[in-house]
From TrEMBL:
Its EC number is 1.1.1.49. Belongs to the glucose-6-phosphate dehydrogenase family. Pathway: Carbohydrate degradation; pentose phosphate pathway; D-ribulose 5-phosphate from D-glucose 6-phosphate (oxidative stage): step 1/3. GO terms for biological process: glucose metabolic process; pentose-phosphate shunt, oxidative branch. This is Glucose-6-phosphate 1-dehydrogenase. GO terms for molecular function: glucose-6-phosphate dehydrogenase activity; NADP binding. Pfam families: G6PD_C (PF02781), G6PD_N (PF00479). It comes from Ktedonospora formicarum.
Length: 525
């Protein structure tokens, strides 16, 4: 069942501002605006928003960074970035570039300089009065995590945690101030709690937007749409009919130039604690009482609280960690993790994690959830697979069902976005031979509409004040409680418990054994 539409040379553009909800004018302040994240992701996203999804003319972007730049040099740098990192068919013409550049301003300061925040305050007040930003501020911390608390404290000390006071702006006291905090949100539970406390001293919870770009992916959001808008699947979404669930986040790339970051985080903190836990929550949550931010996040937290922390014995038995060694990716030889530039030869940082966990509630009692993620795997892919239980009595002889597997529902999050359902069917011919076939559809083919980039959707939601796709304080801490129970056990285990796998393979043999001892196997993309 492939849903087809008339072929088009390119997908139709999507709409980011829906149902008449247009954003208010505002100033976006990017801390660390000259850094990699701002240059590669944030600036191109804002340029795309302004050009393809018109924003109010009084929308302005302020860079807060250490480099000795002025407005003109900053504008030159920003234009160079958007020309390099925007998709070729999205790039702005000369007129649009100049319009974008005219909205850019620069505030030079070190993050620990109180006077710099006073200069920022004066600049924002000037923009309110002269450029019409109406006292609305959005602070984006595109900075190293160890600077977050310092920046937050200085924002509070300068009074920048409140909306600007602009008389006669027409908002009648509805101006706002919000802050976006990037992952990693803490390094463990205690550091996450400390950062939450630091944020809570300066900003109210409804001003705080903890961003995980996976939540901005259209296909991640479609997990909820698929579950709660299709009456034939939701009744089967429980322990009576589901045998097990698999979540795979595979990356074909290695660590690249991120050795310093990766050595401190590893795969479990980089991917499992945030991306995978968010996908897990959407897959396993109960129906929310309403489609609003608090109701949805309430149900996600319940899932995390229903996962017991791992005991030391459970970590040894149900968690596999490994590092890649030299191998071949797409026909090219690649070095092992310990040979990557910046990685210590005695490093115990994992580049692969596989684990089995249970959600202790009525819906999922005794249903194992198998999770894995890794670098330098054969292909880039993120998938959720729901494997249903076998039929209670197989009418056909074993010789007739060699190609038959249990029903599997696979939600492909990236890169080939879509959903497929594996069913049993008879092979044409006189013999009764059964095989598994796929019923599938592709989002692009079905709708013919391009999906918004993850950062585009999330930044737009923050400007509108919609926190549905952002992570709440208790979600962060509940997730870290699970991860800490694993990493603290790892600290007490010898280095010999870290397995190896050849780059270009699906991980170590021990990850396969994790399922094989349960009579199951990984569903490789």
């Amino acid at each position: 069942m492939t849903h087809q539409i008339e072929s088009e040379s390119r997908l139709k553009p999507h709409k980011i501002w829906q149902d008449g909800h247009m954003p208010q004018p505002c100033a976006i302040v990017i801390f660390g605006a000259t850094g990699d994240l701002a240059q590669r992701k944030i600036l191109p996203t804002l340029a795309h928003l302004m050009h393809d999804h018109p924003l109010p003319q009084s929308f302005r972007i302020v860079a807060f960074a250490r480099r000795p730049l002025d407005d003109e040099k900053w504008r030159t740098m920003a234009l160079a970035s958007i020309n390099e990192y925007m998709a070729p068919d999205d790039r702005l013409d000369e007129q649009a570039q100049q319009q974008f550049a005219s909205r850019l301003f620069y505030c030079r300061s070190n993050f620990d300089d109180p006077e710099g925040y006073q200069r920022l305050k004066q600049l924002l007040e000037k923009l309110d009065h002269e450029q019409g930003t109406e006292g609305n501020r959005l602070y984006y911390l595109a900075t190293p995590p160890d600077t977050d608390s310092e920046i937050i404290a200085h924002l509070g000390a300068a009074g920048l945690n409140h909306a600007g006071q602009v008389s006669g702006n027409g908002n009648h006291g509805k101006s706002w101030a919000r802050i976006i905090v990037e992952k990693p949100f803490g390094h463990d539970l205690s550091s996450a709690q400390r950062l939450n406390r630091d944020l809570g001293r300066v900003f109210r919870e409804n001003q705080i937007y903890r961003i995980d770009h996976y939540m901005g992916k259209e296909t991640v959001q479609n997990i909820m749409a698929f579950r709660f808008s299709n009456g034939i699947f939701e009744p089967l979404w429980n322990q009576r009919y589901v045998d097990h669930v698999q979540i795979t986040v595979a990356e074909s790339l290695g660590i690249g130039t991120r050795a310093e970051f990766y050595e401190g985080e590893g795969a479990i903190r980089d991917i499992v604690q945030n991306h995978i836990m968010q996908v897990l929550c959407l897959t396993a949550m109960e129906p929310p009482v309403a489609f609003d931010a608090d109701a949805i996040r309430d149900e996600k937290v319940k899932v995390l609280r229903a996962i017991d922390p791992f005991t030391a014995d459970e970590v040894k038995r149900n968690v596999v960690r490994a590092q890649y060694v030299a191998g071949e990716i797409d026909g090219e030889q690649v070095v092992g993790y310990k040979q990557e530039q910046g990685v210590a030869l005695d490093s115990t940082t994992e580049t692969f994690v596989a684990l089995k966990l249970f959600i202790e509630n009525w819906r999922w009692e005794d249903v194992p959830f198998y999770i894995r993620t890794g670098k330098h795997l054969p292909k880039r892919s993120t998938e959720v697979t729901i494997q249903f239980k076998r039929v209670p009595h197989q009418l056909y002889r074993p010789s007739e069902t060699k190609g038959l597997v249990p029903n599997r529902l696979t939600m492909r999050i990236q890169p080939d976005e879509g959903i497929s359902l594996k069913i049993g069917a008879k092979i044409p011919g006189a013999a009764s031979q059964l095989s598994s076939v796929d019923m599938s559809f592709s989002y692009n083919e079905a709708f013919g509409i391009e999906s918004p980039e993850a950062y585009e959707r999330l930044i737009a939601d923050c400007i509108l004040g919609d926190s549905t796709l952002f992570i709440r304080r208790d979600e962060i801490e509940a997730s870290w409680r699970i991860i800490d129970s694993i990493t603290k056990t790892w600290q007490r285990l010898p280095a010999s418990t870290i397995h190896t796998y050849r780059a270009g393979t699906w991980g170590p043999a021990e990850a396969d054994e994790l399922l094989e001892r349960d009579g199951r196997s990984w569903d490789n993309p």
